Structures are given as C-alpha cells and as structure tokens.
Amino acid sequence: MTFPTNQNQGFKRVWLITGASRGMGALIAKAALAEGDAVVAAGRSIDTIVAALAEGPALLPVRLDVTREAEALTAVQAALARFGRIDVLVNNAGFGLLGAVEESSDAETRRQYETNVFGLLNVTRAVLPSMRARRAGHVINFSAIAGYRSVAGFGVYSSTKFAVEGLSEALHDELAPLGIHVTVVEPGFFRTDFLDASSLAVSPNVIEDYEATAGAVRSQTASWNHQQPGDPKKLAKAMVELVRAQTPPLRLPLGTDTLNTIAQKNESVALEMETWRALSASTDFAAD
C-alpha cells in the first residue's frame, strides 16, 4: 500500500524508532500511534514490522540495519519525504552479550559495539541535520541499568551502555543551545524477550575460574527470563509522557530496581571517594 508523501498534517509528533519490529521498540511504536503520532518504524524486516504494527497512514515501516550507515541515511530520507520532519528519535536497537570480559572474544565484542554504539551513532548522525535545521527535536537513547552499574557476566554489554551514557551527556550539552533535547533512558529488568536467544548472545567460551562470578550469572539468567519486575507496556507509555515534557531530563531511570541500584552505587562511590580523599588530593601541584 502506498500513501502520499509529506503527510505531516494532523500528527502531533513524528517518531523514528529503531528496533521497532518486536519487543520494546514495537510497544513504543504502538503507544506513539495510539497517541495520534506518526511513526517511522525501523527494523531489519519490513514484513515483521507490518505484522507487529499493521499498515496505516501514520506508519512508515523502513528497513534498517543500524550497523550500515547508508541504510540509516536512506531511512531518514524516506521519513522526511513522507512526513516532512522527525520530532523524536528513539535509539532502541541493540542486544546483550553474556560472558565474563575475558570470555568474550574480539569478534563478539566488536559485534556488540557495532550495533549498540556505532549503530546508534549512525542513526543519530543521519537524523540530526534535519533537527538542527528546525531547531527542534528530542533524541532518546536507550541505555540500561547496566549502563550505570556494571556487573559480572555482562561487562562487555555494560561497557557499550556506558558509552551510550557518555555520548548522551555530550550530545545533551551540544544540542541544548539548538533547541534539541537529549534523554538517556535507563530501564531495569523488564519482562521482554531481552534474555531470549533472539536478543541475548551467550559467549561459548567458559573459563572455570569465573564459575562463582560470571558463571553464576550464566546459570541464573534462565530463571530470570520472563520473571522480570518491569512492565514493558508501562515503559512504552512512559516514553509518550517523556516526549510531552517541556523540560525533559537528561537521565530517566525506569523501574524500582534501577532506582535502588543507582542509590546503592552513588552511596558506594561517595564512601570510597571519602576513604581515599587524602591520596586523591595529594596529586595537585603544591600551592605557592
């Protein structure tokens, strides 16, 4: 089915959502559509996107492998041709890697970064020129609870989310004077398919010395799957509320598990900093 181009009348916002064919991305797309917004739903399979969201004048499914910069540019061009603008970019595409840092191979690690970090950058660079031209827009980057505190067994995955956090902080400062908001979203454990094989890669390399740390996480992961405390439909609604805000936050933790983890880490960092304050302060040049 085809629709006329540049049909932006009547849509409060136009979203571009990566990883929109299933899971959290599809739920966010559904929530945005229910709000009366238009959605450019990006994923590796247009058929899968249409099956998840159904066709309609407010939906533009686009094929996008975020690791391919040319596809990101093409997707953005299609969005602008159809709707004339992109108001909200949701960088949601990504996957996890389970394994100790040493167990994670070079190829596995690079694949993580290609999607979770470089893919996010590909799409962001493609979208920002049109947002800058309008001096308006909202970039939402999906991090995770692991982007604030890393744990054994998810070190490489966490490092990609730490990178997303750092990029988002800089983007926030760079884009705020141009009227563009940036928010990094930090979900805790939500009941999605993140721990399924479709979203979580498991390193086949197992080192016995890590049995009590990363190994324990390996063995527990199956029991966590689809038992997580977070409600993904409520997260999707929270994204709609977020984009309504006049002054959105730089960081948005989601879930009580994330709130508790952030509080615990902040307390631990403050305690350690105080314990080592004298040595830390001793490295300045002596006052004249």
Characterization of this structure:
This protein is of the alpha/beta class. The chain has one domain: NAD(P)-binding Rossmann-like Domain (Rossmann fold, 3-Layer(aba) Sandwich). The chain is built from nine helices and nine strands. The chain has a seven-stranded parallel sheet, sandwiched between helices. It has a two-stranded parallel ribbon with strand order 5-8. Helix 4 packs parallel to helix 5. It is globular, with a radius of gyration of 20 Å. The N terminus is likely disordered.
Structural class: alpha/beta
Proper CATH architecture: 3-Layer(aba) Sandwich
CATH fold-level label: Rossmann fold
Taking the sheet with the most strands, its summary is: 7 strands, parallel
Summarize the helix and strand pattern as letters: EHEHEHEEHEHEEHHEHH
* Overall number of domains: 1
**What Rg is obtained from the alpha carbons, in whole angstroms?**
20 Å
CATH superfamily: NAD(P)-binding Rossmann-like Domain
- Report, as a whole number of angstroms, the end-to-end distance: 76 Å
User: Quaternary arrangement of the chains shown?
Assistant: single chain
Globally, the shape reads: globular
Tally of DSSP β-strands: 9
Helix content: 40-55%
User: Which strand order do you get reading across the main beta sheet?
Assistant: 3-2-1-4-6-7-9
Average pLDDT over all residues: 91
Just give the CATH class.
Answer: Alpha Beta
Number of helices: 9
Poorly predicted ranges (pLDDT <50, ≥5 residues)? 1-5
User: Strand share of the residues?
Assistant: 5-15%
